[in-house]
Every structure is written in C-alpha cells, then in structure tokens.
Design a protein that fits this description.
Elements (H helix, E strand, L loop, with lengths): L7 E7 L3 H12 L4 E5 L19 E2 L3 H6 L1 E2 L6 H6 L2 H10 L4 E4 L3 E4 L4 H12 L4 E5 L2 E8 L2 E8 L4 E11 L14 H8 L5 E6 L3 E3 L3 H4 L4 E11 L2 E12 L3 E3 L1 H15 L4 E6 L6 H14 L5 H5 L8 H8 L12 H12 L1 E7 L8 E5 L18 E3 L7 E2 L4 H19 L3
Helix pairs in contact: 1-5, 1-13, 9-12
Length: 424
C-alpha cells in the first residue's frame, strides 16, 4: 500500500450512509487505509428513519425475486448479490447482538424495532483501525489525472482541503429526504467524470389527490385491496395489498410501489387516476348478487346499517354522499339502480392524482448514474479508472420492502472490496 503522509489514502469513501458504511468497512478489512467523508454531523442519518424508524433491513427472498422488484435493470446486480447478500448483512448484525425477525411479506426488521441498533452495529463492524472519518465536510470536486481519479477536494466549515487516494467510492445517495443529507451532490461528481445522469425523480412517494374524500378518510387503512393506475384512461399497472388514506391523499405499501409509474406519467403531462377495488375477490356479478342477498335479508333495516356488512364504518358516510343515497331509508327501498352504483363504486373507488410531496418525502430516488456506464462485476466507472459507485446514486430503485437497502449493502460491499484491490 502506497503512503504519502496524512493526506493520502488507499480508498476515499464519499458518504456515510448504508452503502458508504459497508464500503468503508470492507475496504478497511482488506488492509486498505480509508478516509470516510460525510457532509452531515453523523453517519447513517437516512438509515435512522427507514421503515418509520424501525429499519426494514432487507427482504428474505432469492435474487430471482429481487430482480422483479428492481428498476430499470435488476440483473445488473447479479454479481453484487452473489458477492454479498441477505445472509451476509444479517450475519454482521447478528454477530453484534442485533436480533432480527421476518415479518409479513418477507420484510426483515430488528427485533428491537430500533433503526439506531442497526446503525450502531454497522459502525462497530466498520471499525476504526484503518479508517479516518471526517464529518460536516462536503466533497466538491474529484481530482483526476490521465483518465483516472486520484483524490477529492473537500470543503469544511473553516477550510478547503485536498486528499489524494488510490480509489474513490461515491456513496452519496440520491435526492430523497434531503434533510438527511441526500441532495444530489453525487450526480455533480459523476458529471465531472463525464457520466450522464438519468434524470432523478421521486420514487416510493405518497400521492396527493383532488377533492376532500381522502381527507375525510384520513387514518383509515385498507387491507387486501387492489389499486389500479389509470393513465389518460388506460390501465397502466396494479398492485394488491395495503393502502392508507391521508389528509392529502393516498399512501401505504401498494401506493408507494405504484408511485414510480405515477410520477413518471405525470412528468410527461398525462392525467393519472388511482382506482381502488375494495372487493377484489368478487367479480361484478358475484358482488351484485351478494348486495342483493343482504338487502333482501335485511329489508326493514336502514340502508346505512346494511352498509356495515360491506364497508369499514369510516367509509360508509363517504359512500352514501358519493352515491347520493339516503342511509336512513329502509333497505327494501334501495332499487337496482342504486345497488348497481354501489357495486361499481366498490369495484372502482376512483381518485384523481394531482401531485406528490417530491423528494422531501420520497423514500428513494429513481434515476442516477446509468448502469451501462458502470462495471457490474466491480462497481467501477467505465469512464474513469479507480472511480466506483454504490447505493442510491446509481440508477437503480426498487419496490418497498427492504429491497433498496439490500441494493445499498451489496453494491457498497462490492465497491469497497474492488476499490481496495485496485492497482495504484
């Protein structure tokens, strides 16, 4: 290992998030001297808020299932997953006393439900012996010579300084949750090296809807429903599972998953709607027969009471208003026309999407450094030698459920390993 005083390191890792902690730790474990530069005052700021503070560490599924949930090119990660996958990150955590549990949907969480336990375990694994850490400093420039990276320029509160290195790993994240430090600086560094950047857009983001219906249903969660994206009247995608109403619109797992398509369509100027099928197990004919049977069986009861057999209580006044049905009337006065309107609304409870909160509340970023410009076996840039990328700065994003953090861990490990073994 070449040494040139306290300003030279074998590997410089830019960003101390999920991918940066793993990259720095693995590079250090090979014997490389490492400089870890982080613009915030502490490591793992975004990790601390993942999974609503619980940290959805990973997803307990084989790579073949992962590929179906990663965009735009999940198979780019084949070598990264082969090198470091779910069992490896869990071993790191288990060895440091962080017990985990696999919940519904194969989502893996710490038993303690504390994201901080995960961050502290990763910091402990990373160690201190070969790693110098610099916080509250931002990398403003890459230093390059003869087609290879040779260091970085760092701006701190009091001074600017240059550090030389054999390799540099960019782990700066995307643009989601900017309050945690993700503001897109990695894209600027990649552009300095000649990389194109696929336009960054929010992904896994809640959706804002027109009108006051969602607001009236605020806090109501629905399970086992089917949500469909309609773009200019054409069906674009659908997801089955859970969603929740908020004062601004729609959120929850299936809405976050569909949001990638919604954001893209809206950015292209299309009109987008979300249709919710509240009874996906029943087709229109079977549902209509059920409604008719229940109405006949409870002919003298008020209509709003029989609605309790069909819908959560919070939905009932909203449905009655939308259908313009008097809930105080007896069931035997509800005609075929109102029954059909009820059935159709249950099968397609429609919301027009007007926007989204943007990167401020997006869980991840779609876009970044194209995978076509990165060597999938090493995470090294194809344009500049000894420059590596890991984590959300790469144009890879995935559905909710632990997939995105595993991408960060796997690419971070591979980048750190490759950077430490790169020739000077």
């Amino acid at each position: 290992m070449k040494k040139q005083g306290d300003s030279y390191f074998d590997v410089i890792v830019v960003g101390a998030g999920a991918s940066g902690l793993i990259a720095a730790g693995q590079a250090s474990r090979t014997g490389a001297s490492v400089l870890l530069v982080e613009k915030m005052e502490r490591a793992g700021r975004k990790l601390l808020i993942t999974g609503k503070g619980r940290c959805n560490i990973t997803h307990d599924a084989p790579p073949s299932e992962y590929y179906r949930h990663i965009f735009p090119n999940g198979r780019f990660l084949k070598h990264a997953f082969h090198s470091f996958f779910t069992r490896d990150i869990l071993r790191i955590l288990h060895d440091r006393g962080v017990e985990t549990t696999t919940e519904r949907g194969k989502r893996v969480f710490p038993v303690s439900n504390r994201a901080e336990d995960v961050v502290e375990a990763l910091k402990d694994w990373m160690g201190n012996s070969n790693i110098q850490k610099v916080y509250k400093c931002r990398v403003t420039d890459l230093l390059m010579k003869d087609g290879r990276v040779c260091g970085v320029r760092v701006s701190g509160e009091k001074e600017c300084r240059e550090f030389l290195a054999g390799s540099v790993v960019i782990c700066t994240g995307g643009k989601s949750y900017p309050a945690t430090g993700s503001a897109g600086e990695g894209y600027a560094l990649a552009r300095q090296a000649g990389h194109r950047i696929t336009e960054a857009q929010p992904a896994l983001v809640p959706l804002v809807t027109a009108g006051d219906v969602a607001g009236r249903l605020q806090g109501l969660g629905l399970k086992n429903v089917n949500a469909v994206v309609w773009t200019d009247g054409k069906k674009q995608g659908e997801e089955f599972g859970e969603l929740m109403f908020a004062h601004y619109g729609l959120t929850g797992p299936i809405i976050l998953t569909l949001s990638r398509q919604v954001v893209q369509s809206m950015s292209e100027g299309h009109q987008v709607e979300i249709g919710i099928d509240l009874k996906p197990a029943l087709d229109e004919k079977k549902l209509d027969n059920r409604l008719l049977r229940d109405l006949d069986s409870h002919g003298k009861k008020q209509i709003e009471n029989v609605f309790k057999l069909w819908l959560p209580s919070k939905l009932i006044p909203v449905f009655l208003d939308l259908l313009n049905i008097d809930g105080n009337k007896p069931c035997n006065q509800m005609g075929a026309k109102d029954r059909r309107k009820t059935m159709l609304l249950m099968k397609d409870f429609r919301f027009r999407v007007t926007g989204h909160p943007g990167f401020r509340e997006a869980i991840v970023t779609a876009g970044g450094v194209p995978t076509t410009e990165i060597n999938s076996r090493t995470m090294e840039s194809k344009l500049v030698k000894n420059l590596y990328f890991a984590g959300e700065v790469i144009d890879l994003d995935a559905d909710t459920g632990g997939f995105n953090l595993q991408i960060a861990f796997s690419t971070g490990w591979l980048a750190g390993q490759s950077a430490a073994s790169a020739p000077d």
